[in-house]
Write a structure and sequence with these properties.
three-stranded antiparallel beta sheet; alpha+beta; 13% helix; 2 helices
Length: 146
């Protein structure tokens, strides 16, 4: 997922670089992997991007952390524990002990920090719909369900 400044204002919008997903099976990004429903946003943006508006859905998220050298992924040592907490939720470390199939996309989202002099980042995993139940709560403090 690629982030451009105007996408920061709405956490339900992702910009997808179509070059990143062009080699997926039959050009279907989700293929047989659980994926949130979305519609294409009509905002004109340069190719090869598309802007996706996600329908209401549940996402598992890390707490906000600071960018390093202008990147949400540069400080690998700092983000690996957060990523592993999200992964452990899918492996059954949740209030119901349920295991989930991995989903797409893994989102890296960002927003301005409170002083407006830097950016904060978070990693998010999509949680598949469990109608009529809500997804189980996380039992790890550093994992936010919303």
């Amino acid at each position: 997922t690629t982030t451009l400044p105007f996408a920061l204002l709405n956490p339900k919008i992702d910009l997808i670089d179509l070059k990143e997903v062009a080699n997926t099976a039959n050009n279907r990004y989700c293929y047989s992997i659980p994926c949130p429903k979305y519609s294409l946003n009509p905002t004109k943006i340069p190719r090869p991007f598309e802007m996706r508006d996600y329908q209401n859905s549940y996402w598992l998220s890390t707490p906000w952390y600071s960018q390093v050298n202008g990147s949400c992924l540069a400080n690998r040592e700092a983000i690996v524990p957060y990523y592993n907490h999200l992964l452990n939720y899918f492996e059954g470390l949740n209030s119901m002990g349920l295991r989930f199939e991995r989903t797409r996309p893994v989102r890296i989202v960002s927003r301005p920090d409170d002083k407006n002099d830097g950016m904060l980042c978070a990693i998010r995993f999509y949680i598949p719909d469990m109608n009529p139940m809500h997804p189980p709560a996380s039992i790890v403090i550093d994992v936010i369900l919303g």
